[in-house]
Task: structure prediction
Amino acid sequence: MDATALGLDSRLFLLINNGLESPFLDPLMAVATRLGEPLFLALFLLPALWILDRPHFRRNLLLFIAALTAAIAASETFKYLLDTPRPLKGMKALIDGGTVHVHVLFHPKYDRGFPSGHATRIFSVAVLFLFFYKKTGWMLIAIGTLTALSRIYVGAHYPSDVLGGIVIGSAIGVIVYRVYNWKSQPAPPLRASTTVQISPPPDEINDRQNQ
Result:
């Protein structure tokens, strides 16, 4: 197989993975990719939410857990159902033959590529809190974009895996917010019961008056 026969997804992957490769970017991308992991995401975001809005921290904590749990469940379900190859497996013949070089950070992975779990998780939380805190939400979107890009940079995912994670994660964020908003709506007030008084027919009234 020739490198020129690669599909668009593989070519975009190599463009980003090879084109951005730099010893100066390695530490930044390593940190960015870690932020998509549940533990690091919690350690980064929860203290920020505590500082940002302490009175609503309990609500934010529960929403964070709900979004993250849904993101993990969704991404893992898709991964096991679809079981798509990652770049190191999809281009293995070219890599082994020396035709293609892939820059890899962390432990190499080969299977269950779609969607990117890191992108799914961080975008579920970023989009969710965008509804509550605009500036903080957009900052999280920017960080999430860097995390998504880092998954290509470290050699773990194709661009389509990352894009799928962004879409699925964003949808989860919207759904969690909608459910919360629906549950938070006050119950409609009960209608006051009205007593309807039925007047007797005119003939009966006349009979009573004549008695």
Q: What stands out?
A: The mean pLDDT is 90.
